[in-house]
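Hi all, long-time lurker, first post. I run a small reading group and we've been trying to get comfortable going from sequence to structure in the token notation. Rather than ask abstract questions, I figured I'd post a concrete chain and ask someone more experienced to write out its structure so we can walk through it together at our next meeting. Sequence below, copied exactly:
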Amino acid sequence: MAAIEAAQPGRVSTVPDSRVLQNIKDYSAMILVLFWQRQAIYLAATVLTGFFFDPFRAVLFYGTVLICEAQDYLLAKRVASVKKHEHKAISMIRIWLLLNASLSSAAICLYAVSVAFEQPAGDHFTPLFFLFAAALFAAMNNHQIVSALIVRLTMYGASFIVIVVKDIWVERPDLSSDLWLHFFTVVFVMYFLIDCSLVFLKLYRTNLEQMEKLKEEHERTKAAYVAKTQFISTVSHELRTPLTSIKGSLDLINSGALGEVPEKMRSLIDMATKNSERLSSLINDVLDIQKMEAGEMAYCMETVDVCSLVQEAIASCSGYASAHKVRIEADCQSRDELCIQGDTSRLMQVLANMISNAAKFSFEGGTVTVGCKRIGERVRIFVKDQGVGIPDGCKDKVFERFSQIDSSDERHVGGTGLGMSISKEIVEHFGGTIDYHSEVGVGTEFFVDFPVFGDIGAESSDTHVQGGSKKAVQMNLADFSPEARSN
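-- Answer (accepted) --
Happy to help. Here is the structure in token form:
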């Protein structure tokens, strides 16, 4: 027993309440997990000994054990609601668990000893085996509360000694007799049980320390994540102010309001304009990612007319497509008005990302088809190009952050690599799915599927919402067009 006490990191009074409460919770969890297994063991022992020995004493033993088991069960249920600052409650539950362990151990020991005393000397296999099984069960499952483990092993060890010493005391055998062999075997068994207890105790303590370290690492990781998020948000917002001024100045120069731009300066001005737009897109995308990770992305749910959304997206992206020498055409295959629920501006952002990708990766003179159709109870919006295509096995990378797939050996188009990742988050938030079909050298079709919501013309309120949706699209056109958010 001294060896088990030595394994403790300190006195009970010096152990923090959080550690004590964790020990109690682990102990209680084991009580609940093994509850029915223990009942089966106790019932089997009662039936077996009641049949071959005294039925009345077997029933009395079983009743006492059931009372202890019920008390353990109620205490274990109560532990779940105890907080680490409730010092008195923790102490009281610990005391009650210890008392209950003492009572149940005493009942097992008294019953085993009483059965042994009815048997002839040296013929105690059944009670000794019961004690061994109880002690091994305690060594394996009661190491969370060391004091309870010590109480149980002490009582079981004392019962072992009482049974074998009583035979030696009565019979006075020679040292070479079987009774002395039983005595030394019991001593060996007790050493074995203590050694098992130490092994399980050390394993539990090691696991507990590892869990505490993991919790500390988790807290540090959370703090680092918060700091990273705040840093990204601050830097992004601080960059926006000077970037807006730079973009405004460049747009003013390009408009000719300050006079004609000299030919030697035009290439530099164009380069600065493109890079400022690219930086603006990157900042917007990083802010969107940061909001999504923090769960702070704001969505305005409304009824959206899909055909109108497609037409607005084509209109907003036509300039970008022309810059890449690509033509955009519409293909709305349904005669009925198709409606979905979502945020119009965010859905516009998804379409802008898909159309800009299609334009960038298309061959000159190609056609990008943007359309919608109904498939059962879902609405599909698709963007089909006649471009380079996407190699097989790249689906995960397509929607990965800061990743861009190029079927050639070099990357020929720019972009942040965040557009499709953001699009996937937005689409899934509205209960939709996003995917693609592609063939290298032939083209790619990206599509998003949403549940059908209803017809816009069904109710007057729906018509009002559609008007608001179109207005929202027009208001956000500049924000989500490829010229402003180049992917």
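A couple of things your group might point at:
The mean pLDDT is 80.
The chain is about 65% helix and 10% strand.
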